[in-house]
Amino acid sequence: MEQPGPSIIFPRENLFFSITRRAERFFILLRNFFNLMITSILLILAGLVALYFGAEWLVKGACSLAIRLGMTPLIAGLTVVAFGTSSPELVVSLVATFKGAGDIAIGNVVGSNSFNIAFILGLTAVIVPLSVQFQLLKFDTPFMIAAAGLFLWFFRDRVISAPEAAIFFALLIAYIIINIRLAKKHVTPAVADEYNGEMGALATVAHEPVWKSLAFILLGLAVLVAGSRAFVIGAVDIARSYGISEAIIGLTIVAAGTSLPELASSLVAAFRKQADIAIGNIIGSNIFNILGILGLSGMIAGPLRGPGISNLDLYFMMGVSVVLLPLLRTGYRIARWEGGLLLASYGVYLFFMWPR
User: Domain-by-domain residue ranges, the chain?
Assistant: First the structure.
């Protein structure tokens, strides 16, 4: 009985099936890639919205509770508001550290500090020139520069150890105590009225039951945690999909996204002619970013490692911090052209930083 011979596949047919299979694999990969990108972008957008509203609710609840417990609007504005607007950076850095994304955690702080001064203050001054009368800025700005310098020294090996983080946190406590004492002694009536007007709405909320303030605080924290997880997951996925380093993502997208509360509060304060609040929020936020965020993250989650953070990133953050001091002391005013200079410096920094 004859055995059937092997089936014959013509070369053209074999080539056709090979091309078809490769095309099918390509389109599957393309579909998966775009599905991942759409999901990542949606996660980032949802995270940004959650971070913004979470910070707003947290600050509202914390301020109303602080005023109800006897804290003056001035002290609440200098501490609770300034540090509360940094809550997105804190939660995002903690989440990134626990996920092993140290470059995002460190890059978030370095990028936020640069973004706060070069972009937010620059943009605010271009829209409305900022006149500064608050004498406490003579203390806060040098303290911010000293904190940035200490960070550069500790981070020279690209690691923030647990003892170094503890030093940061201890300095934050000392800063808060000194700032409150200075505010009570040297604040001018004009500045006190400025903060009283800004915090007036919260002062009326303070007459509501304490449970409402606590509810705002808990709701804000919950939304911040959920938003930060979504934001970090989306940012890391985009970085890995495009082959971009996590440090770049942390220094740009994450830093700008978590600085939305500072951007909103500074612009609103500037339009209301409340320059001391606009600048004070930025300086207080930058101090809390280094001492509070790196301090807490380093103590809770262990050593913080950021090998992807370059000297360019560190020196630019330090440079704009130092430049802010003469800008504030020269006539106690940031003019439009000086704001434009800050914005231009940020654009140049992005140009040289992005190819990494």
Answer: 27-353
